[in-house]
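agent> Task received from the user: take the single chain below, predict its 3D structure, and emit C-alpha cells. No templates, no multimer pairing.
agent> Plan: (1) validate residues, (2) run structure prediction, (3) serialize to C-alpha cells, (4) report one or two observations.
agent> Step 1 OK, no nonstandard residues flagged.
tool_call: predict_structure(input=
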Amino acid sequence: MDLLSFAYPVYEKYLTWQIARESSNIPRHVAIILKETDLFDPKGMERLITALYLFRKSRVEIVSVYVDILKTDPALKAEIASTLKARLEKSFSNLPASTGYRIHGVDGEVNSTVPGKDFFVYVSLGFGGRDEITRAVLTILDEVKAGTVKPEEVDEKMLESHLLVNHEPDIMIRSGGQKLSDFLVWQSVYSELYFTDVNWKDVRKVDLMRAIRDFQKRKRRYGR
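)
tool_result: status=success, residues=224
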C-alpha cells in the first residue's frame, strides 16, 4: 500500500470527526453548479449521487443543483435537458425513499417531482437566475392586472414566493473553475462561496467534506 492510499481514509476519518464536532453548524442548504458535460460523463453522475448521500449523511436538508447547458439553440438545449432529466430520474431512484426532488426544465417549468420527508433536491436544467427573476416579476404583473394582487402589496417576500427555489443556500460550490454562473441570483446574495479547481468527475468525498468543513470555520457576515 502506498502512502497516498493509506493517508486518504485517515484524512477522511479526520474530516468526519471535525465536522461532527460542530454538527450544529452544518449548512442547511447546499448549492452545486455543474456543466452539462459533467452529467453526461458516467463518473460525473456517479459523483452527484455520492455527493447527495454525503450531504444527507451530514444532515444537510436541501441541495440545489444547477446544470449549465451551454448550447444556445433552443431546440438542442431542450433536447439536452430532456436527456439529462431521464438520466437524473434513473439515478435518483437509487436514493433513500424519503428523498424528494424537483427537476425544472429550460423553460423553468416543473418536469418531474417526487415528495420527500427529510431531504430534498432541486435541479435546474439550464434555467438561470435572471430568467427566474424575470418570470417571477412577469407573473406578479399579471396578478396585479387581474386584480388578485394590489400594487402596494408587492414586496420582497412576494417576489421570493414566486421563485423556483424559496430557500437561500448557505454555501455555493463550484468545481473546475473560479466563476459562478447564473443560478439563484436572488437567493445567493449572502451565500458563502467555495471554489475547487478539481473537475466534477474527479471530485472525491474528501473534497466535498472540505467544503463543509470550510463553511464551519467561516464567520458569516450576511453583507455586513
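agent> Step 4: summary for the user.
The chain has two domains: 27-127+167-216, 128-163.
agent> Done.
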